[in-house]
Design goal:
Layout: E1 3-12, E2 25-30, H1 36-44, E3 62-69, E4 75-79, H2 90-106, E5 110-118, H3 125-135, E6 141-146, H4 153-169, E7 176-178, H5 187-197
The structure holds guanosine-5'-triphosphate and magnesium ion.
């Protein structure tokens, strides 16, 4: 898929404020600091479109971007707040979790969930929550392992395998893509999944 343009649309704290349901969309979920906002920028080729930070908890609302592609109509890419952000209050964490759960269960134009996990670690409790939750949904799901540039060669082979095992255990069948926003690895594959499912 050739992306020709991408622009920020809106930042919302609750579902009622999301744009109308005219365009198909994909969402990025995952733990805080895993690289969701960085992946948005890498996928569309615009550094600084989504705000990123070395400090977890940067994204605190659903941030919506409109993406134009050469063939096929535009679609929305939604950057979500990180799950399990340690410094947020319990109340805030629960609010985000509920927001995300409701979004995943009820958002009609949703076509693909990109679940980002740090390739250096095995799936964490917050990731297993996502597995569990997505098991009951019908939206296509892609497991995206991030920061592959930080792996050595043997970890490179091992990381996707470990994730596949965890998915099997959770009785989820989903493709696993190893990516690096830094070096570009896996981005073509993620764009291809987006292009195929987000129609
Ligand atoms: N080496 C490397 N660092 C990355 C990569 N992707 C993201 N990072 C770094 O990881 C940190 C967190 O990135 P963000 O994109 O802000 O993470 P996020 O998932 O949006 O975090 P929240 O908004 O807190 O949920 C930043 O310092 C990024 O530069 C990658 O592919 N390789
Ligand atoms: Mg973010």
């Amino acid at each position: 898929m050739k992306i020709t343009d991408a622009a920020f649309v809106t930042s919302v704290a609750d579902l009622g404020a999301l744009p109308g349901e005219g365009l198909p969309e994909a969402v990025l979920v995952g733990r805080s600091n895993v690289g969701k906002s960085t992946l948005v920028n890498a996928l569309v080729g615009q550094e600084g479109l989504a705000y990123t930070s070395g400090t977890p908890g940067r994204t605190r609302t659903l941030n919506v971007f409109r993406v134009e592609r050469r063939r096929g109509g535009p679609f929305l890419l939604v950057d979500a707040p990180g799950l399990g952000y340690a410094k947020a209050s319990n109340e805030e964490r629960e609010r985000w979790q509920r927001l995300l759960a409701r979004y995943l269960a009820s958002r009609a134009p949703l076509r693909l969930v990109l679940h980002l996990m740090d390739s250096r670690h095995e799936p964490q409790p917050a990731d297993r929550d996502v597995f569990h939750f997505l098991g009951g949904q019908r939206v296509p799901y892609l497991a995206v392992l991030t920061k592959a540039d930080k792996l050595d060669q043997s970890e490179h082979a091992q990381a996707p395998r470990r994730t596949r095992e965890a998915l099997l255990e959770a009785q989820l069948e989903a493709p696993v893509v190893l990516t690096s926003a830094e070096e570009g690895e896996g981005l073509t594959e993620v764009r291809a999944w987006l292009d195929e499912t987000v129609r």
